[in-house]
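Appendix B. Chain record.
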Amino acid sequence: MPAIDWLLRKRVEVSWAAFALANLLAMTLWDSWETIPFHFIWISLTLVYGFRVWGPTATYLVLSAVVLSTGAVILSDAYSGSQLWGELFEVPLMSAMFLAMVWHARRRQDALRAVERQAEERASLLERQQRFLHDASHELRTPVTIARGHLEVFQLTSGESPPELDVALDELERIERILERLLLLAKAENPDFLLVEEVELVSFLEDVFMRWSEVQRRSWRLGELAPGWLVADAESLRIALDALLENAVKYTEDGDSIELRSRAEHDGVVIEVADKGCGVPADALERIFERFARADPARTRAQGGVGLGLAIVDAIAKGHDGRCTVEASEAGTTFALHLPGFRRPSAIGSDEREVVLTPLPDS
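Structure tokens predicted for this chain:
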């Protein structure tokens, strides 16, 4: 049984050895035609090595056996006068060509192994990073929640709200938002990251729009909305749109225009958040969706955040097999979510609408 298993594993090498021996026998029997089986031996050796790439010891043993056997047959025929002495130069020439191929094949194999090692190291690093984000976020949520709870109780019982207390509560709330985003990013690589369902897109976008237009002083515009149903995780999609709208608010001033709109595209939908703010620098566009990346590092922490919002948008878009793109100019910035799985109504009526909300008057 071990011998049979070995033969099965080495069937290519065994088949080549039988083929080479048959051609070596042909060289001895038909000396006037021996160059044909001679080249068959060397060409087949090159082909087999291309598939197997043996180790150095096996390679040099096989090469030595082929050189000695074929060289001996040609040398014998040259002595007998049936072959020219110049044919002997074929042996070192074929050997040199084979060695050149061996060198290139081994270099390629070493390069592939290096790439595989790098891929394994990156996968391991990503796994450790995801685990760290998840564990650290979970561990930090408890003390932050406890601290915020104590401060809120103190605020209620004392009946006072000094500025220092408001700042502390705001900072704890900000830390909670960061932890939630870190947890979301940590889960983004999991297969159960999203729980999809059919979402009626018009009412969904209207709800998102109304929430933001009621709390932020901007010139809000609800553009044309594509009627239909989108297969998506409603909560994750809401988080992504909140991040895009929050980003638009950060980079605009009171009275600047922010528009939310959507349009059908092939079998998908494009949801856009467009603003008339200060825009995104051209050198920041390539890295804007990276974690902890900020379009303008010079902006304050309150204005610029920590650079997790757009990374979350990118993760959610990819989780839906979609993508997020950005276009920026001096006139403003437009972020677009390209999502598949959109189903239009069978008969499209006049459901598309546009709502404009001006900034709230000063109280």
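Further analysis of this model is presented in Appendix C.
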